[in-house]
TrEMBL record:
It comes from the Bacteria. Residues 6-123 form the Dipicolinate synthase subunit A N-terminal domain. Gene3D superfamilies: NAD(P)-binding Rossmann-like Domain. This is Dipicolinic acid synthetase subunit A. Residues 141-270 form the Alanine dehydrogenase/pyridine nucleotide transhydrogenase NAD(H)-binding domain. It comes from Halalkalibacter alkaliphilus.
Length: 294
């Protein structure tokens, strides 16, 4: 239970509502900032502004998955109020207060460092990334269906990268009957791809391996689908780039060549916000339970 824990939730989207619901059930005291247009009432949760919140009692601060912008703005879909996190806010919290965010950037890192608080980047955790790969794979299937005129079954699909997302995506498309090959650069990953019953190839041979592909799904966060690679791919190939912005595709060249290449960030929040929120809520509940007061 989280009885006596004060959690300040600032901004966010539908995923935050699942988190609030779960933490509220666990008896945490929740203060919500940037939710003035939200009609739902949550037991044990109250609405506040950045000015009237009692920072000195906050045990944890929860930011949205996107964290803050490069100038400290926090996105919220439940308010028109402009929310800017400042180092001064964090300095007013007790020393044990932990900041939880999906991702971070230089602004947020500096705020946390200058206030001598600690930051947990939820999206960097293996458990969150693996659970999140499930709605990501489902969202990729949705996009493949929407943007092609062929079935996934028997389509020639290449997945680039065998990390947390790549593995789930490769397995999902294979289960739908696609002919899946996976590009990786480590020998143990190539061995794993073989073990999964899929066709492995080394990313050094990308250009040759993508010459007859119907669908190419990139999960490698580096420029790997270069103009050189694109120049030899069939014109009908659909590219779905899942890697974080700016993706791994030379989108300018793909467009020039008349190929459809789509950058698809944030699929879990788009296709399954409730599940994506529950994934975060479950992990946060454990982290907050284990967070000891000094
Ligand atoms: P991950 O577990 O780190 O996997 C990335 C994979 O790419 C690893 O296998 C890594 O191999 C490989 N890789 C990295 N640089 C490479 C290079 N230059 N050449 C060849 N392989 C390379 O990351 P993840 O959790 O799967 O996430 C992958 C990307 O998807 C990230 O950018 C993440 O932000 C994004 N993502 C997007 C969505 C969405 O909705 N679109 C959802 C979740 C995540 P090594 O381990 O050998 O480096």
């Amino acid at each position: 239970m989280l009885t006596d824990k004060h959690v300040v939730v600032i901004g966010g989207d539908a995923r935050q509502l699942e988190i609030i619901r779960k933490l509220s059930t666990l008896d945490a005291k929740i203060s919500m900032i940037g939710f003035d247009q939200l009609n739902d009432g949550f037991i044990g949760a109250s609405k506040h502004t950045l000015k009237d919140i009692e920072w000195s009692t906050a045990d944890a601060i929860l930011l949205p998955v996107s964290g803050t912008s490069s100038d400290g703005k926090i996105e919220t879909v439940f308010s028109n109020e402009s929310l800017v996190l400042k180092v001064d806010h964090l300095q007013q919290t007790p020393e044990h207060c932990v900041i939880y965010s999906g991702i971070s950037n230089e602004y947020l890192d500096n705020c946390v460092e200058n206030s001598k608080r600690s930051l947990v980047k939820l999206m960097e955790r293996d458990d969150v990334a693996i659970y999140n790969s499930i709605p990501t794979a489902e969202g990729t299937v949705m996009m493949a269906i929407q943007h092609t005129d062929i079935t996934i079954h028997r389509a020639k699909v290449a997945v680039l990268g065998l990390g947390r997302v790549g593995m789930s995506v490769a397995r999902t498309f294979s289960a739908l009957g696609a002919n899946v090959k996976v590009g990786a650069n480590e020998s143990q990953q190539l061995a794993r791809i073989t073990e999964m019953g899929l066709t492995p190839f080394h990313t050094d041979h990308m250009k040759e391996e993508l010459r007859d592909i119907d669908l190419c799904i990139n999960t490698i966060p580096a420029r790997v689908i270069t103009a050189n690679v694109l120049a030899e791919m069939p014109l009908h190939t659909l590219i779905i780039d899942l890697a974080s912005k700016p993706g791994g595709t030379d989108f300018r060249y793909a467009e020039k060549r008349g190929m459809k290449a789509l950058l698809a960030p944030g699929l879990p929040g788009i296709v399954a916000p409730k599940t994506a929120g529950q994934i975060l809520a479950d992990v946060l509940a454990v982290l907050l339970t284990n967070q000891t007061k000094k």
